[in-house]
Hints:
This protein is mainly alpha-helical.
Amino acid sequence: MAPLALLVFAPAAGSVSSAATGFASPPAELFSPLVAQKVLKTAQAFSSQAPQYPQYTDRVNGKWIWFSPDQWTAGFFPSTLYAMGERKRLCGARAGSISESQWLDLGRTWSTGEIPLETHTGVGHDVGFLSYPFMDELALGTKNVTAVEAVNKFATALAARFNPTVGCTRSWDSSDPTDFQVIIDNMMNLEVLFASEALTGNHTLRQIAISHSDKTMVNHIRPDGGSYHVVDYNSTTGAVIHQRTSQGFSDSSTWSRGQAWGIYGFANMYKHTRKFAYLQTARKMAAYWIKNTPSDGIIPWDFNAPLSPPRPADSSAAMIATSAFLLLADQEHSIGNVVGSAYYTNEAIKMLNANTKLAWRPEWESLLANGTVNNPVQNNLTGIVYGDYFFIKAGNELVSRGLAHC
Ligand SMILES: *[C@@H]1O[C@H](CO)[C@@H](O)[C@H](O)[C@H]1NC(C)=O
Ligand SMILES: *[C@@H]1O[C@H](CO)[C@@H](O)[C@H](O)[C@H]1NC(C)=O
Ligand SMILES: *[C@@H]1O[C@H](CO)[C@@H](O)[C@H](O)[C@H]1NC(C)=O
Ligand SMILES: *[C@@H]1O[C@H](CO)[C@@H](O)[C@H](O)[C@H]1NC(C)=O
Ligand SMILES: *[C@@H]1O[C@H](CO)[C@@H](O)[C@H](O)[C@H]1NC(C)=O
């Protein structure tokens, strides 16, 4: 594979090479005391009467804008609190003034606002994202019954969106029910099907995830490794009607956040199934990413957006891709490809360095700025809850691998 030939260990400009690991040092901001301070301050705003969830900030002062729970992003802040619990375990006093169990209790409290969504939600396929804090809870081995029920109900809701003629789960609802819309982001929501399969032994859920991924591999991914945001299928015939964009620059461009979801999603599918085509797809999408990253390392909101006027960055896409590259590195390692694993790890750290340097904002409520929520509706240059989430996750991942110190 091409990635192996491209192997380089050159540290990113301005960072120090760590003699111990051979990798560049990750940015010091990952473990700044501000991480725990800001997250705790936001966590203290929970209202049990009328829970509201931070999604993105304004562009000027970086203050969170709050939304009702019925949004695809509601799970990220609770899951961030679980990630802080993990960080406490990894980093001790460097992860805030409260204990691990206090972080986890905050995560549980924040999750409760999502429970009504088990019976009614408008988020469609994004029940997978809503499941994050409940999957975090179960990963602790607690067998918490609320979390078990949430995972199973959200998985059932996603499975109910599967159409065997199309072979996919429906992402977005549309006024014409025969217009069956699938977005690349949907690859991220498949994890809840595996989590529920593990709890119930229902293998149909896995088969749905595999069918969805097989179709996505064929119809969303271009020969050059870039991706379409949206594929419209005809739900009656299963035929592809359109390959297009919603949040990207154009139908033929590659929207960076969608590309990041795809790399993560296919690496994750390989982890669960060991189907080699998924690993190859994740590699191909990663190769596109690396090839199209500008020399300054800053990830634009769309890889094909014009350079003038200056195109806004999307730090959230960079953070998701950092986690995706680390997950891909794990998969390479699992098949004995040590060189490939080091290659993706190195690319992840370089990306984290360049984009943290751009986006870190001590004075904002979010950790990072320079996120693009949705550029076609002019929502750019904000902090974003999932950008911060993947930033914290990347820090945890690197500490766990011995590639960073708290
Ligand atoms: C289980 O998790 C829910 C939130 O998802 C929380 O309200 C409840 O207290 C937890 N139960 C235990 C025993 O920790
Ligand atoms: C397994 O899950 C599918 C999708 O939710 C459902 O239709 C089916 O009834 C389940 N099977 C069993 C044995 O519960
Ligand atoms: C899907 O195909 C059916 C049967 O050919 C047709 O009636 C319907 O208009 C098509 N839907 C779309 C969205 O193209
Ligand atoms: C990053 O955000 C700052 C303002 O917060 C803005 O001035 C700058 O142009 C942005 N850079 C990019 C590459 O988006
Ligand atoms: C970013 O959003 C602003 C409005 O919030 C808009 O005026 C501008 O055109 C957007 N930038 C680009 C390059 O699309």
